[in-house]
Amino acid sequence: MKLGTGRRPLRRWALRRWRYVLALFAVVAVLACSLTLAVLGGMTGGRAAAAGKVSSPDTRRSPGTLTAAGALRAFNAAFAVNAGKALVYRLSTAGGSTTLFKESELMEMAVDAYGRTHQPSLLRTLKALYHGLLLKEGRNWLRARSNDDLMWSALMCMHLYQATGDATYLSRARTIFDRTYARAWSADLGGGLWNTVARASKNTCVVAPAIMTAGDLYLALHVPRYLRIAKTLFAWMQTHLYDAGSGAVWDNVSEGAGGTIVDRRTFTYNQGGFLGAADLLYRITGVRAYHTECLKALAYTETDMTTGGGILKAESGTGPTQFDSAGGFKGIFVRNAWAVIGRYGLRGPALWLRANAKAAKACADARGLIDEDWSRPTGSGVLSAFSCSSAVVLLQMTGP
Question: How far apart are the first and last CA of the chain?
Fold first, then answer.
């Protein structure tokens, strides 16, 4: 009886001790989490990194001699932030945090680099970038209001799966696609997908990546529903947002007081998304009409969306509100166009994009960064990661 009574104070003391220890761990965890989020947000400096460490760009190189590997190293030195096992890209050379869409496209750039070399270090970079994306966005990406952001992220996950064989990425791509498609599709305006949850317009920039993701899911899972979705969405895009006579892909369609309104602006990412979707359906179905429309969209971009010298135009516009708005669009076009060019041995378009690569390299600054305008030297002000990514993608595609 006395022995048992003597143990109670000891137990109470032990419990109090463990409460203090757990409280201390909680405080440390909160501080660590806050520090990580500050670093991941890119609001402060941070070590630039890819695959753990990145060497500084060689500022002694001659103009126009930048290689694909050198461009990636320079990009990572300027924009990558390493926080333990996570790697993220900052919004600009001044810091800042990117959106899900831009994060996905910068991840695509890294996939392009891995696809060119298959270096183990770049595979580690992909895993670190994905980990950083999860830390920043969480696991529920469906909180995003933009359906196009989600479809580009789903497509990125499919490309990660294709590059690595890791079914984790396939599962995430399927989940994002299924849930986004369910909330974005409606019979309004003849079908298609709403660009955001506000349901103001139906855009090429959500429909095209949805088609490519659905087609890739069909190839990976052999579920007929995904092919039906891809074919139906492409038919809708052809009818509502495409000029079959010229190969121009229009931006969006909406309903106005006077009826249907078609926004006929053209952007390189819409051209690239359309031709990538058309080519994927051609490869799946063998229907020649898809291939024909793919080549029309490619030709239109070369003839109508370039300078007099055949260089793809900058698309972000001017003024502070236009910073970073469309600078990475050309990367999406180049990725899809180069795949088509290589697949069918298109010599003329290949020479055209290699000429663009030569022009872009000549615009590099001392750090090896290339802004979105490939017709003049890169400026010395704040540079956007998204805008600088287009040239990095171009060099990964055209090499060396």
Answer: 84
Strands 80-83 and 95-97: unpaired
CB 113 within 8 A of CB 394: no
Strand 242-243, strand 202-203: pairing: unpaired
Judge whether 56 and 49 are in contact, CB under 8 Å. no
Count of residues for the chain?
A: 400
Phi, psi at residue 194, to the nearest 5°?
-70, 145
β-sheet bridge partners, residue 80: 89
pLDDT confidence band for 75 (50 / 70 / 90): very high
Q: Which bin fits 53, alpha (ψ -120 to 50), beta or left (φ > 0)?
A: beta
CB neighbours of 210 closer than 8 A, spacing ≥ 6?
151, 177, 180, 181, 184, 193, 229, 230, 233
- Check the CA dihedral 92-101-104-346 and report its sign: negative
Q: Which residues pair with 89 in a beta bridge?
A: 80
CB 125 within 8 A of CB 110: yes
| Locus of tokens 């970038």 | 129
C-alpha–C-alpha distance, residues 355 and 222, integer Å: 40
pLDDT digits (tens, 9 = 90+) for 291-336: 999 999 999 999 999 999 999 999 997 555 567 789 999 999 999 9
Half-sphere exposure for 247 (CA within 13 Å, toward CB): 22
pLDDT in tens, 179-200: 999 999 999 999 999 999 999 9
Is the Cβ–Cβ distance between 123 and 164 less than 8 Å? yes
Dihedral (CA of 300, 262, 389, 333) sign: negative
Instruction: Evaluate whether 248 touches 300 at the Cβ level (below 8 Å).
Output: yes
Instruction: State the Cα angle at 125 between 341 and 159, rounded to 5°.
Output: 40
Asked if residues 374 and 64 have their Cβ atoms less than 8 Å apart, the reply is no
Residue pair 335/392 in contact (Cβ under 8 Å)? The answer is no
Amino acid residing at 158: M
pTM value?
Answer: 0.86
